[in-house]
Records
---
Amino acid sequence: MLNAIETHELRKVYTSPAPKPMRGAPPSANGDPRGPGGGDVVALDSLELAVHEGEFFGMIGPNGAGKTTTIGILTTRVRPTAGNATVAGADVRTNAVEVRQRIGVVPQRPNPDRSLNALENLVFHAAYFGIPKKVATERAHELLQKLEIASKAEAKVDEMSGGQQQRLMIARALIHEPQILFLDEPTVGLDPSARQSLWAILRDLHAQGRTIVMTTHYMEEADRLSDRIALIDRGKLLALDTPAALKARTPDGSLETFFMSLAGHKLD
Amino acid sequence: MNERTTYRVAPAKVFLALLSRDARVTRRELPFFLIRTLMQPLMFIIVFGSLLPKMGFMGAQYKAVLLPGILGVSLALSAIQSVALPMTMDFGWTNEIEDRLLAPIPIPLIAIEKVVVGTIQGLIAGLCVLPIARLIMGPIPGLTLAHLGETVFIALLGSATFSAIGLFMGTAIKPQQIGFMFSLIIAPMLFFGCAYYPWKGLDVVPALKYAVLINPLVYVAEGLRGVLNPSSPHMNLGVVVAVLTAMLIVVGWLGVRSFLKRAVK
């Protein structure tokens, strides 16, 4: 099977605190990620991953585990300290432009272009990928329809709810038909029904054969959607397998228990 | 959907798409942008270029000194602000530049595109101020548009330099401090920029005359004086062009480096 993504000995050390503050909880219940350099934070420590083409790949870990850093490196927005990674056959360090050409990214927090309306957000983003305006406009309307925000096409971004903005981010990530879709905790802050409908959209995208990499700290979400799940804690890969195989490794068949047995602390 | 075309794109085409995005946003915000950046120069034109000469406190000759300076101030303010202010927003809480940072183009070109947009906005501001100033000030002794090409060239070089300064300020200064830094840097820059008096006039304070040479506005104001009113005292145009070019290269490099630091962690 071909690999859409490969990482080797991927390491990231932030010399100042990590860019995304860890929400809520202190860094870790039983270990300080701060290295010997005082202010240095080891976000990733020799991470080895291989994501297959067409796979729905879930990454689970507590806040500060290194999930966002991993997505950051794979989407060329964070420079690795050591090791290497290829995405759709292109090296993230030496061929970042090529990587960006082939990926779509849904960020943790919606970050639409606030100077543009919803439709313009999509059409301009498509233009950055060389898509002619006519094709882009058609695709944009189609996506807005599919994501059930067609009525907001001409709306200013500020007039859209959090869930609607998140859908707009998904549309933006898809408008240039990327080979690989990255989603960083896409359901954080969504209500249960918005979450369910996002799951349906993701299942549909997966069924079309797209490679999807999604981080989450909801076990249930990863369990329901993923072909395989990587459990990550303190920048290290703890386990990687299908949800069923991971659950089979504990007597109570729960991913939470399995994570706890490996990491020595709870997921949240 | 997965069977549809994936378009390949050259960086030049992405660059044009980024420009067209900024053109759309600028067009929409142009009146607000002009009011924001031109209010102060216009007030100066009214008071120092019209009222005081009418009251007899200033000679008509002063208008010839003031007009090129005001032009320099206008393009400096608009070029800096049109880059620095959006930049602090873009990299701030909303992080909305993300969609452009994900575009298939080398990241330094995204920074350079911002400088190009700032340069154009600086030129637009200058273009608006010149006729308004002439209208309010009335006839200006010695003013000529005979060297229009040179005038546009100096304005372009000055706008680009200030736009690069905007890129550096917008990316290197924390958003919480941008207001404070603007007051700290912009006010001295305007008043010690030889915009409201010729550089030669500083012969009376030699120390200041050489201290102000660090200020890019000095070269823009003096350069514009040289092309718009060649008979008035002004700095050598070769020096003006050489120093502005050097400043553009240095500040541009610093600005792109600072942008990269913010864009890729």
Note: Chain B has a mean pLDDT of 89.
---
Amino acid sequence: MDAADLSIAQAGARLRSGDLTAVDLLGAVRRRASMTEAILHAYLTLDHDGAMAAAENADASLARGEDLGPLHGIPLALKDNMVTRGVETTCSSRILAGWVPPYDATVVERLKAAGAVILGKTNLDEFAMGSSTENSAYGPTRNPWNPDRVPGGSSGGSAASVAVGSAFAALGSDTGGSIRQPAALCGVVGMKPTYGLVSRYGLIAFASSLDQIGPITRTVGDAVTVFEAIGGHDPSDATSYRGGFPDPRAELGRGVAGLKIGVVTELSGDGVEPGVTAAFRATLDTLSAEGAEIVELSLPSTAYALSAYYLIAPAECSANLARFDGVRYGLRLPGDSVEQMMSASRRDGFGPEVTRRILLGTYALSAGYYDAFYGQAQKVRTLVIEDFKRAYGTVDVLVTPTTPTTAFRVGEKTADPLSMYLSDIFTIPSNLSGDPAISVPVALDEAGLPVGFQVLAPALGEAVMFRVAEAVERLVGFDARPALADSEGAA
Amino acid sequence: MTYEVVIGIETHVELLTRSKMFCGCPTEFGSEPNTNVCPVCLGLPGALPVPNERAIEWTMSLGLALDCAIAGHSIFHRKNYFYADLPKNYQISQFDLPLCVGGHLDIDAGAGVRRVGITRVHLEEDTGKSTHLGGSGRIHDARGALIDFNRSGIPLMEVVSEPDMHTPEEARAYAQELRAIVLALGVSDARLEEGSFRFDANISLRPVGAATLGSKVEVKNMNSLRSLQRALAFEIDRQTLVLDRGDRIPQETRHWDEAAGRTESGRSKEESSDYRYFAEPDLVPLSVGPEKLALLQAAVPELPAARRARYVVSGLDEAAARTLVVSGLTGLFDEAVIAGADPRLAANWLTGEITAHLNRAGVDQAALPLDGGQLAELVAMIEGGELSATAAKDVLAGVLGGEGSPRTVAEARDLLQITDTGALESAVDEVIAAHPDEVARIRGGEARLVGFLVGRVMKATGGKADPTAVDGMIRERAGA
């Protein structure tokens, strides 16, 4: 097996046995990147010098007996909406082209402190707005299972890099499914933590009350490892959870016997492709056979979640993206007045989807419309939270297909934003509620494209979420790899 | 026609916290431009605000001092508008759930005490400071702008009054009293010239007896209490003329031009702004429990009104009490009185010579090298006739110059008056004996020669005699 295909756990063991060095691991993922990037375009920036220095450092400290833990020497990628000191950070937008941040995001600081080797920055839909990574000012990312297909989004670059082995793991951000949906479409594990468990400091905000950083990995165990490294209270983020960090390993390996698993009527029926439904039902049967009790229940408010989301997220984004005005950083076009300079810079700097959402959000917050749109959406959000709470009174976790379809064709939905938005219909509710959720690959459909299975848990319920996810992974035994990862010599 | 004037005031007070409202940057005034900045107060991508607890407490303290209700649950909102010195292009402020609501402030503009309602006190962040280059220095004809973000993110309290004032004098008294309270709380240096205490006034006129208010004019750019009063007086005259002509007053913002002594119309565009307020998702709601509130209430110091009343009881007149409280030197005064000083004399010296010294030297009150005991000693020496008024000024200068206590300075500089009656009498006797002609002429009615003899005695005693006492003794002996 090529070193680039190891899990973090396996690579760590080989590092400590002296079998491999961090420089070897870096070499392996770089070879993989050089074979696949021309097709995939998962990365926007590869920080060759920084990564090599970090890998050499990791080897030196390990040789001195300083072991910083499971991420020591492991090459990881970052979605390009997390700021990195000294490394260009663009959010896939023209408006930030060439911007080099003077500081590291908290998650970046924590990964560095854990000895991780930061490879570079991965592609995304501009400002994380999109579900296909086609809305990037620097060109789309392709799906490693089939380059005619999208990798999902917005963390499409992160998911594709992990799937193809040009990173051992990557961080993504999830505002409405932007970690879980691309993870599902690329056949990897993607997890959105409970809101507040991972610091948002240094994550370039899309919608502050919904954004959450999380891991994209090849195994559930690796997701736990990365989550532990980046999670925990951060005094620089006022919305960071102040209670203790819930031990994500507390229930790991206990299986699903005796657990009550809820299937949500509203989140499993209409618009789901037959291949996805088949894989979902087969997984339920497996869990049931292991002794889990499968319960069907209704969460009526989730039918309105998508609509509420497309008012709340644009409203917040309209304010969050106001700072990109050409005054202090980023693109600045000339103008006869400050207002003209700002308008010209923003008009040229933002792509069409970002512009659409800023306009939507500005409208939703305007005097006379606030109550009908933003105010109403917040009420729906409260109902979603209440619905979930009620459900968790009777079941331990909820499960859904992660997405209604497998990876769609490049260009298939770009002309129709609404059909694109529907791709996140099963992932959005847990962003509104702030609860944790994870997508685990369970099968390939007839076209050979991966299907994701989503596990939702109550707030701070990461332990039971990982427990179920790990059981799914183990019981289903999904071990397919994208053909592109095996194209050694072919590229 | 006669009109009723209706005035409300919005005051912005920069808090004297060590760090900014949402980041750890220092708040000091006068640093090199753009040196007290970080990703948060520059609005860099990814940066997040963390609220300054002390600023929140201080705002609640002001609310308590103004008899406001303190909200058990309060939130920050984003106020959205594009402006080059507003780094995020939204200001973190408060909207419908401010920290403090519904208080009042009693003022006295010379016509007895009147109560002005306080609508609310809320907390927000200050903006950066733009300097427009070229033209008149105003934005409309500038050719460029420089922005200093040192001020960006400094905590700012906004105090909104009810439209309860009716004269420029009341407006001035309100601003003055609010400033005195802020100073008593120690939450701001409240310097008008540095912009740490700024006010905008809303003024409208309506025919006496009319039920509805006239159109509101907002007056900005008043940098002193005097300009507040002048600007409002100007507006009353201007609006009266317009209304008397039968014209309407447009709702607008006007800028006070101190040099020209008039207000000028600003751009009316500001009136149509929609700030699209929504709850700040980067911050969690603020909540304050009864225990915390009780602690804050207990920590509210004696307020200016109560202090003035106490000083009047102790013997000062209203005006002296007011001047003393405004001077901010009340701590020193209280110490001196406890140490036995006569209140009126102590107050005179504090608001006279000592304030003059502070102004001359441009030093801060906290750095004043004088304690209450020393002030009491100085006052006692004057009262006891040991120091003449002139000598006392010299002694004070010595004390403020760090030469020691008043008595040490008086002795070292040889300024003590002769209070030993025997010594003084013999000096007088000698002068009388030496000037028989003058004594005879005084007896003959030439009283102006008394002064000449007093001068001889003062000369003989090296200026240390009490001239009043000498004058009396000479008159007595010369039989004038």
Note: Residues 3-261+392-486 of chain A form a domain with the Amidase signature (AS) enzymes fold (CATH 3.90.1300.10).
---
Amino acid sequence: MTDSILQTSGLGIGYRPKNLAPKVVAADIDVELFPGELVCLLGPNGAGKSTLMRTLAGLQQPLAGAVDLIGRNLQDFSPAELARQLSLVLTERIDTGNLTAYSLVALGRYPYTGWSGRLSEADERVVRWALTSVGAKALANRNMIELSDGERQKIMIARALAQEPKLIVLDEPTAFLDLPRRVELMQLLRQLARETGRAILLSTHDLDLALRSADRIWLLPTGGPLQVGAPEDLVLSGAFQQTFAEIEFESHTGSFRLQPQPEVEIALVGQGLQALWTRRAMERAGFRAGNLSAQHRPRVEISEEQGQTTWHLKTIHQNHRCTSLYELVQSLHDNINQDQP
Amino acid sequence: MEDIRDIAEDPPWPDSGLRWGALIGLAMALLGSFLLSLAMGSVSIPLAEVIAILWGESPEKASWGHIVLSIRLPRALTGILAGAALSVSGLQMQTLFRNPLADPFILGISAGASLGVALVVLGTGAASAGLLINLGLGGHISLVAAAVGGAALVLGLVMAVGQRVQHAMTLLILGLMFGYLTSALVSVLLYFSIPEQIQTYVVWTLGSFGSVTWSQLRLLAPVILLGLGIAHILAKPLNALLLGPEYARSLGVGLRQSRGWIIVSAALLAGAVTAYCGPIGFLGVAVPHLCRALFRTSNHRLLLPTSAILGALLALVADLVARLPGSQATLPLNAVTSLIGAPVVTWIILRRHNLRQSFSA
């Protein structure tokens, strides 16, 4: 295995309020980051995700233990040295004024340029490469004010790339983005990690996306300890269920259940995509769909009638025909008493 | 539209060099207004004669030589230095505090400098004939030192408190309060002064480039050139600070060091000008905004030189207007800069939507 880029040993994180005892958020953190790896830090609000990110990025002092970056204690780096190894993308939306995307990415060359900040031919090449890598070549001449949130985030990542660091740390980069933009961004980050051999660490609330794209997950429950593993490992070990106990993590689907486990069971007859989404609709309405005997009532049967999907809700006395899932949900609410199994 | 841009192999990559054309154009305009301010005034002197006098030839009328060389030239040079100094000082403060309305006058830095001046002049009981005229060289150095010290003190205080409060408007109110506080101290000093001193002090607060003599320029010029030199070197960290302190640090900026130098430079510039020309309003806040709007950039490598030149240009123009050429009367300089500056600041506030985007206000 290759050498790790970042390594912590017995790391304790938290705050040192003035004149008060230090407030430890999480302790005994031993983690490593390897080249080419995309790692997602997950955890409920208040567990200390931001504190951990800030400590690893050198913005905050550790309370105990040490952070080693390329085999050297983080505290021993000067700001200029650190900037060549580690770059940051923060949650906070930065208002940069009258800067074009190109000049913003060019700021990433700060650790490499002379006192005047003038870009050499080589610096210009890196800036162009960074813009191209994030697929934002067309935005180069646009003013930052004109860009959408997703485009801005890409430019900020290009800036982080232009620093040519070993490690890029992103604090909730997907926070202000819509779903397609989030998926796009995660794909981009994964691809960047693979292709450029850098380690990328990001914190996120996007459980689903993190489970699908991260090489490893750091899971930080409130009060610790930090758990590390491939996403699937953590699902199997039950770490997710523990960390997100109040919102019922569903191990089978890797997502959250919005409703508590429904009590009333209804037979569902049908196949394929229709059956899958009918099940979802029924669960949303508060019913459990089961594969039950032909005699079970109530039951929902899916059928094709003249090329149109129809649903029949059969209770002991009645048969309701529905032409959409919306109607079916209405019908379920009207006809079935949820309190009595 | 999007598609066409995407298909293009390589976009025209922007040129990140300096815009020399713009700089030279501005410099030419400055030269023009410099010559005009030598030619115009209560006595009108032909431009050809002015140039001849500057070349060392004797003019048509002997008095013209005296007017140009002893009165108008130091005045114009002072205007250039002061305009450049206040604008660059304002630009640095706007970036440092990430606040579009920051400038030496608004943040109370000039008031701090005034306090220094008042302490020296009123405290040492300087002669009443003129506020600054009867001081020896040692007196001048202590005057400038006191003004720069007062400016740095207020700037440091605003900075220290500003780190605790994030909101931009809070910072402005703080600056106002520091301004009131120092003004109050000045008025206490004034209360115990003799009427002549009070009058000269009040005249000084109206602002003027005309009271600076050649011997005073010998101290003023090097101090301002030093401040401008430091500011020029700070262009790189100032650019990084556009992203806010945390990004700046992650880019390798030594925050404490950079902020320290910015304060030194801004205090030297604002303090020295205030000591000699009085607290001059609005140039510091207006000029950087005009430059950003003119050149559509926030890059300090361009903003610093253009602000200096445009500031010098506007200072000369304001002084020319204040002298009311062709008449014997003059207006207070501060009245003229306010007439230029107040609409600009109003325009900034009215475009607050835009302002929010330019700064995290």
Note: Chain B has a mean pLDDT of 82.
---
Amino acid sequence: MNYRSKRGITIYIALALIMLFFSLPLLWLLSLSIRTPAEILVRNLHVIPHSPTLQNFAQVLNNHQFLGYLWNGLKLAIMGAAGACVVAVPASYAFSRLQFRGKAQLLFLVLGFQMVSPLVMMVPLYRSMQAMGLTESHFGATLIYIAMYAPIATWTMKGSIDAVPRELDEAAMIDGCGRLQAFLRIILPVSLPGLASTFILTAMLGWSQFIVPFILLSQPDMLPISVGIFYFFGAYAGSAMQLVAAASVLSLLPIIVMVFFLQNFVVGGLTAGAVKE
Amino acid sequence: MKFNRTLLLLVIFSIGCLQPTGSAWAQDLVAPDRIGRSDAPKSFTFRVLTAHSNNNAQPKFAAGMAELYEKYARNHPDWRVRIQLMSLQIPQEHARLLEQARNGTAPDCTSMDSFAVPLFIHQGLLKPIEQYFTKEEVEELFAFVRPIVSDTEGHIYAWWWTTDLRLLFRNTAHVPDPPDTWQRTKEAALAAKRTTPGLDGLLFNGGRNETTMVDFLPNFWAQGGKLVDEKGTPVFGKEPNRAYLLNAIAYYQDLIKSGAAPARVASITDYSDLTASAIAGSTAMMINGDWVIGQMQAAMTPDAFAKWEISMLPGPTAEQRSTASGGWTFVSFSKDPEKVKACMDLVREVYMGPAVEVLQLLPTRQSEFDSMPMFRSEVYQRIKQYLTKSQARPGFPIYTAISNRLQIAIGSALSGSRTAENAVDEAMEQVAKVVPKP
Amino acid sequence: MKMALQRRHSGKDRKSPGAARSALRFNQGDHPFWWLCPVTIVLAVFYVYPVLEVLRTSFTDATLLDASYRYTLGSYRSILLDPALLQILEATFVFVAGSVIGQTTLGLLISLALQAGLKRRLFGVRAVRVTVLATWVVPGVASAITWQLLLSEADFGFFNAMLKFASLPPVPWLSDPWMAVWSATVANIWYGTALSVILLYAGLQTISPTLYEAAAVDGATAIQTFWHITLPGLRPTLLITVIIVSVLSLNTFEIVMPLTGGGPGRSTEVLALAAYNMVFYDFNLAQGSVLAVLMLLINLAVATTFWLLFRGSR
């Protein structure tokens, strides 16, 4: 019991330090978000300002486009992640289970696409999307998200499928399943936790994606929060930081809600591990 | 878990449903994305800086602009204006505009930062607009405006409607008289530090940002320095401009070496950092923009605010003074003359006048200073005088490359990783590589 | 059918007859073509053209200012012979190496702590998870500005004020060229660890709990368990994590730009930021493309190195 509780305390201390490091900037952001314009430039160590206010949150929520920014961000992130996963899963199965020539090279080629900076691709990307008539639409943006995140999704899914013992495949196929059926009925359900974390990963990447929606969308009601946040800055940078901070804090809310509800489903509640011995 | 998931779906759904639907605005003349009736026959696209529109994040400004837009809508019932928003990410926004202008998908009417205008004029992407303004209106513009928005033949391509300038702010409790030379500024800063230990003498932007250039260039210009010649070829690395640059950098270095300015100016890239220091009372002087006057007034007690005064930036001698002005313009990319006229009508009726008062920004014509109540105060009249001596950044596309390289040079010189001479020469070398071929 | 079932249960000699039957039947499924189709189509249609364009542009002298251009190796020469390249690579190296080590280590620590905490049903574990994830969800520019405020060297800068409290001298977090890179790296570690946590936590779940139980029965200490069970089991996940973190860190400038702009001088100008400045300030598309190609090559080299190092026995 003594040893156990010592371990418990070590874990607590570790978690507390980690919490401190990660929450400090967030707390500061929170502090900025409850300041009046008069106090936003008052910089002292008081985390709580003299006259805290919720009016920034009200102003941000009253902004006609703010909720739209959040919704668009969520929509693009989720659709992009879903598409990337759908496209990546068969590919990662192939990379994991099948033997073929040039497999490693192909794997690196796929990742290589991920490595080209989207920033520099901005101009040709815009031109090609325009030629295809896919600018100014969420559909077009989603397709680019899928192309951007499929490589990472392939790599991470491959890792998950690798962790599933081959005996399962072979057992299923001996039973008379085709490879496709073995995949759909056995492997996929078993690697669901891995798929879920791949989905979450690509969704998070999509949430913070700036360049692609910036270059492809110009109607304010289509923009995600990663682009929309810039519209809360005043005429001179820094002159409306309290609103930017409030908008940032509010953009956490849907995610926090989702994480609390999805936690058990996603990052671990399911009986861990793939193989029932 | 089943309960959780249902609740989750409900939460997402309700957030999605909170989207204000378009129909709520259909009857109004002004909506966040539209000016004019939604069934008006003619329309043009209008991309505007968020803070200059009815989408300004602060409700009082948004309401003021919405009112002005409504007046325009009543005067032009045939037009529907589709509003797009522009953010303060100036390099990206203008690169996107450049690409869209080439493609033919640029908005009909758009905000443009003043220092990007020359780039677009040189590319032949803009339509002349001088026919929409009277000669008097054009003549009243401050001197620094015309060279930027015109071409060599005198056609005007952009209407520069709001500007700003840099001032020397001082806390009269520490620095009673306005220092007019570099030497006096340094002495005043050191004197203030002696009487009040822990105080910073003078703060300014010295980090890697365009703000640094705008604060620095007046020191160069005051000596008569030119970054480029009349044809647009960079000449800042050649004599006598090179000497002027080195003088100005030496002034900055001296401020830091003597302790008048803290070493951390080499990392300051943001005016609000400076303003915050002034409000906190931790600095005696700062170089900042006119717009912080309002911010300081809002954040400080009346007594504390009353101690602060503005003056023209100091120069090498009392007679050689200058300051830098930026600001925003409107341009039109449309090939349809009707749309260009409608765009310029919007500029005339809303922005060339009423908007500066609503948004509390500086106008670009001397007459506006005298006619609008807000600008008749003593402070603003002095600002008007300073604006007559102000300069804008050179009207050539190569400026952004020069700015990038000079920021690097100044930062390296201030942090000591390079000598000023090497830094400037390197900047000149790098810029020479990207000069467009004739 | 019965025979097949019996064979399965017998285990060892499954290979021969059953496998032959499988091979015949599943020739279709064994060919990678259909499995790779979706990915290939998506990448080919939407990504190949822009990527090829970037490669092509690097061999020209194209700028955003001029519609015309010529093919030349001049852009490569400009970049590779630029004396500043060394400094940029140095900054990038510190930034990427620091981010990879920092994010992976912290990610591992957090995942382990989360797993252990969850097992013991410790209070507050969820809060840690949410906080770490929140760092990624907050718009990057807001985070960068907040870090700038915390690192400010003015009197009111949080970290320096804390140092003053402890009677320590202030640190030039952002105005000293050397220190600035580390500050930017720490901010990036803060920003990106969330991704490592997601990956490593999922990886931890793939380690069978029976192994841990066996170790506990054997009386292994925490460190022994970690070294002999957790780490080896995490090896494939660590490989993927390290590669992904390095790719993302190399391509990122969202945090660095608002924080320092690349300064003072060029001391924090990582490759991605140099490419940004090249395209948006110098309007030099060709040299920006050269930098993108450079980033691609470095990325590939780093990924290949990790792959070879980590593969070991699989």
Note: Confidence is low (pLDDT under 50) at residues 266-277 of chain A.
